[in-house]
Amino acid sequence: MTKVVTTPDELRAARAELTGKVALVPTMGALHDGHMTLVRRAREIADHVIVSIFVNPLQFGPGEDFERYPRDLEADLATLAGAADLVFAPEVADMYPVLPPRVSVTCGEIATLFEGAIRPGHFDGVATVVTKLFTLTAPDVAIFGQKDAQQLFIIRSLVEDLNLPLTLEAVPIARADDGLALSSRNIYLSAEERKAALALSRLVRAAEAAAPNTAAVLRAVADNRADLDWDYTAVLDHRTFAQIDESFSGEALVMIAARVGGTRLLDNTIVHLRAGE
Ligand code: PAF
């Protein structure tokens, strides 16, 4: 039986009844199979699974899609029936009695790069809500998708830098049969746009095919000819988020973002590189 609560007080009371290992899967709802891979992973590694569903206004900038972000709580609860033990689905006023909050989390320089350069304040909003969700649910482990690679890096930094008492688990990107990374925003794409969007996963595959040679991966990403409105195509040191050059050996993150019609899409892959091979 999946229990649904909507207020922080109800959540704390329900959490207090859970013994054993607790996993949290934070989401903004509009659940698709990508989310369910996180929920299934949570089930594998924990005794109890909590899923939060909250479209967090703090992480949307002016003119972004906060109002039109897909919301269907009834469908999400049907999807989660039996898969989650506890669902936390608060209203904005439950999460933020004072909005904007008097105190919030600010991230460092990393939050101003890539996604953060395009969406100023986005990661501070994410870090603030995630900190609140961690405090309210006191999970032993929290599960995030690799798809939002910069978000994952920032949440790892949040947990490490603030000594938060939980571990993080990252789950690989779930893809549709045509290769497109699953995202709640894919529903905005027309059939034509969806075809164009496949350029992202093609570029990811080209980078993977060029690995492990560092120079070849950098070339594959730089030579990308797909006619898309790219926000960035970057190859980074996965441990530090610094841009790499041809002398780099180690785990690299190829991280890309583009606009297709009015929709921003992200994709990435992790490749093991060796300089000069
Ligand atoms: O990745 C998301 O869906 C959101 O950024 C998160 C982590 C649930 C915070 O609102």
How would you describe this structure in keywords?
about 280 residues, about 35% helix, alpha/beta, three-stranded antiparallel beta sheet, Rossmann fold
Strand content: 15-25%
User: What helical percentage do the residues reach?
Assistant: 25-40%
Count the helices. How many? 9
Overall mean pLDDT score?
97
Which structural class should the secondary elements be placed in? Answer: alpha/beta
Description:
35% of the residues lie in helices and 21% in strands. The mean pLDDT is 97. Helix 6 (122-137) crosses helix 7. Helix 2 (33-45) links the parallel strand 2 and strand 3 (48-53). It has two domains: 3-171, HUPs (Rossmann fold); 189-272, 2-Layer Sandwich (Pantoate--beta-alanine Ligase, Chain: A,domain 2). It starts with a strand and ends with a strand. A six-stranded parallel beta sheet has the order 1-4-3-2-5-6, with helices on both faces. It has a three-stranded antiparallel beta sheet with strand order 7-8-9, covered by helices on one side. The chain is an alpha/beta fold. Bound molecules: pantoate. Residues 26-28, 56, 59, 126, 129-130, 148, 151 line the site of pantoate.
